[in-house]
């Protein structure tokens, strides 16, 4: 059994130096805490999949790096739940290995088109968020493979490569999902268990 966890790539989730958590972020952090704590033992192995550059999808072999924002956010969230095990960081590419065993954390956001605070207002955002929400709720992860770069860019979704990496699983058993959009960007937090 492989646990698949989705958390946001939002830098807002990183602890600020002496600053309070921005309003609206606490529910997102609480959801991440709950799902991550349930999905992995404190000393279990974790593979984190993120994008090395939120402005473009990379191609080629997986890159093991902890330098990108998504990996930093995931590392902070894992620290919050007391994780002390091995962490492997991968860049979402077409050459990624199939998730198998342990816990895999996919760091990705929905559209940036929600409400008046949206950084990228437009009708496409709802289409993207509905696609992601349905795929996570139904366990039909293969549907995320239809999130191409053009559609994602129109909705302000900068982590399409990670969603497509999750699509490679095909199907999984959904166990929990919530979404929040405190600043016009949809943040999904979810857990699914791989049927493979």
3D architecture notes:
By secondary structure, this protein is an alpha/beta fold. The protein has a single domain, classed as 3-Layer(aba) Sandwich (Protocatechuate 4,5-dioxygenase, Chain B), CATH 3.40.830. Strands 3-2-4-1-6-5 form a six-stranded mixed beta sheet, with helices on both faces. The radius of gyration is 15 Å and the shape is globular. 43% of the residues are buried. About 7% of the residues have low confidence.
CATH superfamily: LigB-like
Oligomer: single chain
- Describe the biggest sheet? 6 strands, mixed
Beta fraction: 15-25%
Counting structural domains, the number is 1
Mean pLDDT: 86
CATH C-level: Alpha Beta
| Order of helical and strand elements | EHEHEEHHHEE
- Per CATH, what is the topology? Protocatechuate 4,5-dioxygenase, Chain B
Distance N terminus to C terminus?
A: 7 Å
Layout: helices, strands, pairs:
Elements: E1 3-7, H1 26-39, E2 46-50, H2 69-80, E3 87-91, E4 103-107, H3 124-138, H4 149-155, H5 160-167, E5 172-180, E6 187-194
Parallel strand pairs: 1-4, 2-3, 2-4
Antiparallel strand pairs: 1-6, 5-6
Helix pairs in contact: 3-4
Key descriptive features of the protein:
196 residues, Protocatechuate 4,5-dioxygenase, Chain B, alpha/beta
Provide a quick synopsis of the model.
It is built from 5 helices and 6 strands; from the N terminus they run E-H-E-H-E-E-H-H-H-E-E. The protein is of the alpha/beta class.
């Amino acid at each position: 059994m492989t646990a698949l966890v989705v958390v946001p790539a939002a830098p807002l989730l990183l602890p600020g130096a002496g600053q309070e958590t921005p309003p609206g972020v606490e529910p997102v952090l609480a959801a991440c805490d709950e799902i991550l704590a349930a999905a992995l033992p404190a000393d279990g192995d974790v593979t984190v999949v993120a994008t090395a550059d939120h402005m473009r999808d990379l191609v080629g072999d997986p890159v093991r790096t902890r330098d990108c924002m998504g990996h930093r956010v995931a590392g902070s969230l894992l620290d919050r739940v007391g994780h002390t095990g091995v962490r492997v960081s991968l860049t979402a590419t077409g050459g990624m290995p199939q998730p198998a065993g342990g816990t895999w954390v996919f760091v990705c956001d929905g559209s940036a088109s929600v409400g008046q605070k949206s950084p990228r207002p437009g009708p496409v955002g709802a289409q993207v968020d509905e696609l992601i929400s349905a795929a996570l709720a139904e366990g039909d992860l293969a549907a995320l493979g239809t999130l191409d770069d053009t559609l994602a860019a129109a909705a302000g979704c900068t982590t399409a490569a990670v969603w497509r990496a999750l699509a490679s699983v095909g199907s999984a058993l959904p166990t929990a999902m919530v979404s929040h959009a405190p600043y016009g960007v949809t943040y999904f937090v979810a857990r699914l268990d791989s049927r493979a």
